[in-house]
Protein: ATP-dependent DNA helicase RecG
Organism: Parapedobacter luteus
Amino acid sequence: MASFSTITPIEYLKGVGPNRAEVLKSELGIHTFGELLQHYPFRYIDRTQFHKIQQLQPDMPAAQVIGRLIHLEEVGERRGKRLIGHFKDDTGAMELVWFQSIGWLKKSLKVGAAYIIYGKPNVFNNQLSITHPEMELYHPGAKQAGNMSLQPVYSSTEKLKKFMLDSRGIQKLQAALLESIAHHLQEVLPDYVLQKHRLMPLPNALVAIHFPRDRQALAQATRRLKFDELFFIQLKLLKNKLLNTQKFRGHRFDVVGRRFNTFYSKHLPFSLTNAQKRVIKEIRKDTASGAQLNRLVQGDVGSGKTVVALMSMLLAVDNGFQACLMAPTEILAQQHYNSIKKLLGDSVASVQLLTGSVAKKDRKTIHAQLEDGSLDILVGTHALIEDSVRFKNLGFVVIDEQHRFGVEQRAKLWRKNHTPPHMLVMTATPIPRTLAMTLYGDLDLSVIDELPAGRKPIKTLHLYESSRLRMFGLMKDEIAKGRQVYIVYPLIKESEKMDLLYLEAGLETLMKEFPLPQYRISIVHGKMPVKDKEFEMQRFIKGETQIMVATTVIEVGVDVPNASVMIIENAERFGLSQLHQLRGRVGRGAEQSYCILMSGQKLSKESRLRLETMVRTNDGFEIAEVDLQLRGPGDITGTQQSGILDLKLADLTTDQALLNEVRNSVIHILENDPKLTKPENILLREYLTESEPTIAWEKIS
Ligand code: ADP
Ligand code: MG
């Protein structure tokens, strides 16, 4: 008897063969028995629910009807071409409409036959219709769909359908597959985990997800399979975290020394918020432990991450180490440098800035100072990671606005000392908790969840073009009070020319409304040479200009506390987290600040929701949740490359409770048996050895 397993190539499955195997590979990426098994249904049709044509309403999400296909006709020309099927039951008639695969449908649909159709009813010109319905021949009396009340629906493609692999065809393969390997399916979780979490055994779950007996069985199977998806991600992440702390000795910072204390008592111009204090304490605890610090600091815009970074770096310097801070853009690096210089004065520690535009001569000096140890803190862009930049004793690395950097770049920083430096990652884009737990589950997480006292919440307005004069009025009022204003235009990669046109047209109106010499305007856009950009930015920062017109280059991190108005043109074209970032550029002083979202009259449902969310709340975490729901985890900045979000059933937006349960379970397991050597954990140990955890350098976030 042939022995099958989940890694058996798919062509060996009964009913597949070389041709079908080829399309399964090319269309669905299915190469093996196991991969087919994981091609789960995306929906189930409740075969107990049928409607009559007379009952169909356009507001129904979808309906299932039994009737007869009376006639097929092709109408329209070229792009308007479509196939219309006249469909009838004993209560009425309707149309079935197809715009695609017309030739193939004409061949395969049987005029005169009875069908079960499924789709969303529409009414157009008083005519009831369903566009691209799912069609299945109806055999009265026969065991329809294996006599199940819930029929699985699998995603398929036109090409697969030509090989008779529509949803029904795939279902047949699944049946054959389960028959051939049902006896070889093995449990992957220990018994005590199954019992504790009341999980359906894996073999049963795999059968039930494809052929559910009823809703309850389906729900149990789904829960079990989602549990596994999340469980093994967490197991890997948390095991890695454990390994990292065991394996990588970290530089030990024993003292809180002179510089830290001098800064704290003499230079710090404000008192720290409790959240800032807490995070600094967490960092102190990590760096005193002798293990490697690997921490993500999340804090909303304006929560004061820079000073936390600075104090951590001073801690390093006090203990005889150097520190560096890497920012994603030149402007940001410059700003960090300026604010750190300003905060430190000249006495506390030596600081330099290194970016691509630093002159060769100065660069040489910096290199020399780094190597002989006379430079304490280096701020810069990715120029920091170049091989020519060598530290005498790098002990602490801060990476700001983490999502702009790749894992590779971070790994390079790690390698700049024999014992890797501590690594603090700061992100200004709040990430929903579920996503953070999944993406950064192996980093410790600190959250600065408090804004400095005395800040007034930013008032956000959404205005249409017709209210432009009101917007100008508000600008003038604020400028009259001595405040400054940002105006941001969208930047769309596909047509930089168009962007510039928008910006220029806007500028023309603006200059008429805000004439010289009373008003002065800075302009910054992506097409300008870096030096000019820098010059314009500095004029605004110094208060020489009152209005800053820009494309989104100012998005991240720019800090001009005197600016009190953020105007975003074509706000409907920005993503939520971007809007929130931009708004965070104001509200940094004690004054009332405003964010004005300008948009056209016509808005898509999604744009409207984005703008409404912005008006409703200033809370970055709440905004991140909405963003996650709108875009899904794959699109949230910086997560695209991370394969760990390749979840088939689990959904990070809706499965929060399950994720918590899973994570706690894994934490509990590892606490009791960190090396997974106990007999009851043998399955877990085997899983990890087989999947060869990628630890060390590449695994820092
Ligand atoms: P972000 O977290 O967005 O990077 P910054 O570190 O740029 O925020 O801080 C925003 C502004 O708030 C800066 O002007 C900074 O000097 C100021 N700030 C930071 N912490 C405090 C505090 N505890 N009290 C008052 N102002 C603070
Ligand atoms: Mg910042």
